[in-house]
Amino acid sequence: MSNPNITRHIEALVFSSVQSIGVQEIILALNAIFNTEHIETQVFESIDQIKEKYSHDDFAIELVHLNNGYQFLTKKDYHETVNQLQLHRSKKKLSQAAMETLAIIAYRQPITKLEIEQIRGVNSDYSVQRLLEKELISIDGKAETPGRPILYSTSPLFMDYFSLNSLNQLPQLKDIVKEENTVGENAE
């Protein structure tokens, strides 16, 4: 059985993490704190105990596994309440241009700003800057093309924000495009 003290430390690590925290990160932190070797089995036991604790109706939050890590999130019953708070903070929302830019980056990553602008047909400096500030995208190196432009990709915060474990969970184009939105006749 897992040490309750270790369980509380893991709970504190998950709670204090802005993004989901992985098991290896937890192990590294515990090893540094206690000067001992902790194993995955011990950490998973503690995580199960924490999940069980927060599964009761006494809590408005739950421990969720996402993006290969763990994070505390509000239970579905309270989403509308939290949504009201978000509505009041709506001035911090992304613009339509930023959302378009984010979608392009998510589906075409890694991608340069020039490629984003070619797809959108307009300058994307401001949108890319806002997405970097909000940490929804990150710089992923430089392209091997002349001028070595910066490559952009989605960040771990993007994965957390959209509750994704992998980019394969993004909706596919066929799921989004409706037949009534197509032009012309379908060729068979």
Automatic annotation (TrEMBL):
<keyword id="KW-0159">Chromosome partition</keyword>
<dbReference type="InterPro" id="IPR036388">
    <property type="entry name" value="WH-like_DNA-bd_sf"/>
</dbReference>
<dbReference type="GO" id="GO:0051304">
    <property type="term" value="P:chromosome separation"/>
</dbReference>
<keyword id="KW-0963">Cytoplasm</keyword>
<dbReference type="InterPro" id="IPR036390">
    <property type="entry name" value="WH_DNA-bd_sf"/>
</dbReference>
<protein>
    <submittedName>
        <fullName>S-(Hydroxymethyl)glutathione dehydrogenase</fullName>
    </submittedName>
</protein>
<keyword id="KW-0131">Cell cycle</keyword>
<dbReference type="GO" id="GO:0051301">
    <property type="term" value="P:cell division"/>
</dbReference>
<dbReference type="InterPro" id="IPR005234">
    <property type="entry name" value="ScpB_csome_segregation"/>
</dbReference>
<keyword id="KW-0132">Cell division</keyword>
<dbReference type="Pfam" id="PF04079">
    <property type="entry name" value="SMC_ScpB"/>
</dbReference>
